[in-house]
Specification:
TIM Barrel, eight-stranded parallel beta barrel, alpha/beta, 10 helices, globular, two-stranded antiparallel sheet
Length: about 250
């Protein structure tokens, strides 16, 4: 295996979502066919306590009604066709359970689980994770919400947890948040690394500060080969992309 591949993992964003319906088992399976090192999915809690793989807080993209995911039962959510919008080939694809995805992670591959809701999901998450056969190093939790990520790390300490951040440009301070602030928060919360939005804020100085802190740095969502090559050369731990095979072929 070449050193460049060892250096930076290629993570399929919501599965191979450029070619298959996002957050479906079809997208997860296709990600492995496209030589991804890992898959990222989004999770939420249904009204009756099941963890479902779904990004939006409502169903408007896939339903004639605009309903909150948290207000629907698993049975109601499973009635939605989340594949047809991607083409006739995917008609009938359904929202999977987290358990379904956990059972589709091959040896040597990893799963990044983005928690889209609050700490109320933790008991169900503990249940599902304890019932799966994956090794702890195959599962990473990611999320924007500080309280939720603290709770995840507290209740599932054997698993890695990365804090998600999105950069914004302040007219005075420039790109924010700063590396120092992110590192301080992650260390204070006992988390294991950073997962940040790609863009010009990620330069050799930024990556150097994160690496010096001993924290792995993942970057989302990169669908540009030149940007991916730059990130790999800077030494990031992982790149999340909608197009895993296409991106890898360009590295």
């Amino acid at each position: 295996m070449n050193s460049n591949r060892d250096k930076t993992l290629i993570i399929a964003h919501r599965g191979a979502s450029h070619d298959a319906p996002e957050n479906t088992l079809a997208a997860v399976r296709l990600a492995w066919e496209q030589d991804a090192d890992g898959v990222e999915v989004d999770i939420q809690l249904s009204r009756d306590g099941h963890i479902v793989v779904f990004h939006d807080e409502d169903t408007r993209r896939f339903d004639v009604k605009d309903r909150k995911v948290k207000d629907l039962t698993l049975d109601e959510l499973r009635r939605l066709d989340v594949g047809s919008h991607k083409g006739e080939k995917w008609q009938g694809e359904r929202i999977p359970l987290l358990n379904d995805v956990l059972s589709h992670i091959p040896p040597g591959k990893i799963l990044l689980i983005e928690i889209k809701c609050g700490p109320e999901i933790i008991p169900a998450l503990q249940r599902d994770i304890s019932n799966c056969s994956l090794a702890a190093e195959q599962v990473l939790f990611i999320g924007f919400h500080r309280e939720t990520m603290r709770a995840v790390k507290s209740h599932l300490p054997a698993y890695r947890a990365l804090r998600l951040y999105e950069f914004y440009r302040d007219p005075i301070k420039g790109w924010c948040p700063k590396a120092e602030a992110m590192i301080a928060e992650v260390r204070e919360d006992g988390l294991n690394g950073l997962d940040v939005s790609h863009g010009p804020a990620i330069d050799w100085q930024f990556v150097g500060k994160v690496n010096e802190a001993g924290l792995p740095l993942y970057v989302w969502t990169v669908n540009d080969r030149q940007e991916a090559n730059t990130l790999q050369n800077l030494g990031v731990a992982g790149i999340t992309t909608d197009r895993p095979l296409w991106l890898r072929q360009g590295l």
